[in-house]
Amino acid sequence: MTDILEVKGLKKQFGGLVAVNNLDFTIEDGSRTGIIGPNGAGKTTTFAMIAGEHNPTAGSILFEGERIDRLKPSVICKKGAARTFQIVRVFRQLTVYEHIIMGAVAGKSCFSTCSYQTDEIEHLMELTGFENDHDKIAGSLTSARQKQLGLATALATKPKLLLLDELMAGLNLSEIERSLLILRKINEEMGITLVIIEHVMRVIMGLCKKIIVLETGQKIAEGTPKEISENKRVIKAYLGKEEKAYAGN
Ligand SMILES: Nc1ncnc2c1ncn2[C@@H]1O[C@H](COP(=O)(O)OP(=O)(O)O)[C@@H](O)[C@H]1O
Ligand SMILES: [Mg+2]
């Protein structure tokens, strides 16, 4: 298996605060990887650097063997890396259909070369549960549904790599089950590599083959769900505090 993403010595400093420090990891093409860690560990900042929203202070990011750090977000998106946002960001005035089409356009290098067939968009809307919501206004959806719309819009860019930032936050148990099925389909049927930041441990443990654990900007562990759930340092730094949530889920 080849690596689709390679992060080397990655660092991000905001003034005096080092949010991410000397971070190394690789993501295998076609895999499902989880990133966990306490609030403020640097998870979202790592995604923001991969997606080109923040320039790293140091280090490099290779996507399909090519350096992408310092490229613009729009260029990185066209190369095939897309993300969703922890804090909901939608264009509130657009309809659901328009929103998803916007993703399709963003994923293409030129509007006129947009290779999307109408039935592909319909299929995507069905997959993400928006098949009856074409004309609904994005701003009128609940925040959990707006996050799902973020997923549908990211998928419409036809990514090879999809970064999901706390997609499940605020969902009830049946919505989580539904989202898990969608994520499996996205990975197994569409062949999209997934990297998932999530606090819902059942999602991470059940879905991911590999888990990376961050604490104060640094990687403190990496391994299979079993290895991570037994790792004393991870339990102390994170899982101990999440135990209640884990048991509840
Ligand atoms: N744009 C920013 N400016 C200044 N500090 C930031 C910025 N973004 C994040 N931080 C800080 O960087 C640290 C890591 O944040 P973040 O990556 O959001 O953590 P996580 O997603 O793991 O909760 C936190 O201390 C946060 O306050
Ligand atoms: Mg975050």
Q: How would you describe this protein?
A:
The longest helix has 17 residues, at about 230-249. Helix 3 packs parallel to helix 5 (about 145-155). The chain has about 250 residues and is of the alpha/beta class. Helices cover about 40% and strands about 25% of the residues. It folds into 2 domains: about 1-80 and about 160-249, P-loop containing nucleotide triphosphate hydrolases (Rossmann fold); about 90-160, no CATH class. The strands form 2 sheets. Strands 6-7-8-3-9-10 form a 6-stranded mixed beta sheet, sandwiched between helices. Adenosine-5'-diphosphate binds near residues 14, 40, 42 and 44. Adenosine-5'-diphosphate binds next to strand 2 and helix 1.
